[in-house]
């Protein structure tokens, strides 16, 4: 069975689509997948089982990237084409079945929109794939020896970034005496590039003992590292979604973006919203004490569920 799956250019949306792929793999263990995805997000899928081919999509003028994708897949007869980009390409291919997601903004979580494309309810949770090499590197970076608090102080939009001093206060509240992760090591994660490094700089300078992983990991390595952490707290970002997909307790911080559409989804995940209009609140309106309280409650819940 051959399945073509066209997904997002963004990491977060790509991670949210992994649950549907995992469902298809379980339903069709003999299927081989071709994944078409934005280049920045291709690492989300590079270690997935049953992967036959990964096609990175790079946006071009006049929509020529769609022509390039069509030329890459047009001479295969597909058993199923899933298009989460809402393009016309699915209708221009030989396919037994097509599932095309309607474009445009609408109410409800993005995960529900993705699942509805294939008529799935409840929506399958996202998953994170990595291999033995990534697991070994994560173990080397975060060797056993106590819990690790992962912080994600970066984002693709400066207005989504929680003030650096709040991250520093949060770290003290959680890892200091009496904290929910008293004595925990701290790892700071972020993507590649100057902008991400600048966003994380104040947090790193305020936590001189932290493990600096900003720009140091590809996406499968980041998934393996996050899977070893006791807790992730970070801005609304691809890393936040990747953390939730690993099953690590994850707290996503939201202000000017709608948590109703993009809250982290996982076995143990929640969104903490800044005070103000939903999807339009400033990140500065979110106090560190409130995030620490929510994080402690999430960890307590994870402990109860693990003990049950």
UniProtKB/TrEMBL annotation:
<dbReference type="InterPro" id="IPR051199">
    <property type="entry name" value="LPS_LOS_Heptosyltrfase"/>
</dbReference>
<dbReference type="GO" id="GO:0008713">
    <property type="term" value="F:ADP-heptose-lipopolysaccharide heptosyltransferase activity"/>
</dbReference>
<dbReference type="InterPro" id="IPR002201">
    <property type="entry name" value="Glyco_trans_9"/>
</dbReference>
<dbReference type="Pfam" id="PF01075">
    <property type="entry name" value="Glyco_transf_9"/>
</dbReference>
<keyword id="KW-0328">Glycosyltransferase</keyword>
<keyword id="KW-0808">Transferase</keyword>
<dbReference type="GO" id="GO:0005829">
    <property type="term" value="C:cytosol"/>
</dbReference>
<protein>
    <submittedName>
        <fullName>Glycosyl transferase</fullName>
    </submittedName>
</protein>
<dbReference type="GO" id="GO:0009244">
    <property type="term" value="P:lipopolysaccharide core region biosynthetic process"/>
</dbReference>
